[in-house]
């Protein structure tokens, strides 16, 4: 499987929708993630793991939703991986969202 791009929506450090393209051009088949501290590199990699495997044991789903989105009353987050496997395009998406119509302050049990 070759990952073509990754899209984050309100996942941890990534507010609103942020997409990263990972182009492959002939012999250039390596992408390097480089940035200053505290700008989302760890979130990038934890997002890939979350998308493929779900939350880690003991991890609060509510804590994975971007804090700025929560302040605006948006309690939905997702990570999508767009890839090519044996010539076919595939998409893998994992979503965090409220269970039904939740009123007032949300807790971890209110999201899935």
* DSSP helical segment count: 3
Describe the global form. elongated
User: What percent of residues adopt helix (DSSP H or I)?
Assistant: 10-25%
By secondary-structure content and strand pairing, the structural class works out as alpha+beta
Which strand-content bin applies to the residues? 25-35%
Radius of gyration: 15 Å
Task: Characterize the largest beta sheet: strand count, sense, and whether it forms a barrel.
Answer: 4 strands, antiparallel
DSSP, total strands: 4
**Separation, N- and C-terminal Cα atoms:** 27 Å
Across the major sheet, the strand order is 2-1-3-4
Given as residue ranges, the uncertain stretches (5+ residues, pLDDT < 50) are none
Mean pLDDT over the residues: 90
Element-by-element helix/strand order: EEHHHEE
Report what the structure shows.
The protein is an alpha+beta fold and 112 residues long. It is built from three helices and four strands, in the order E-E-H-H-H-E-E. The protein has a four-stranded antiparallel sheet with strand order 2-1-3-4. Strand 3 and strand 4 (88-96) form a beta hairpin. The radius of gyration is 15 Å and the shape is elongated. The mean pLDDT is 90.
Please describe the structure with a list of short key phrases separated by commas or semicolons.
single chain, 4 strands, alpha+beta, 4-stranded antiparallel beta sheet
Concise structural overview:
The chain is α+β, with helices and mostly antiparallel strands. The chain is built from three helices and four strands. It has a four-stranded antiparallel sheet with strand order 2-1-3-4.
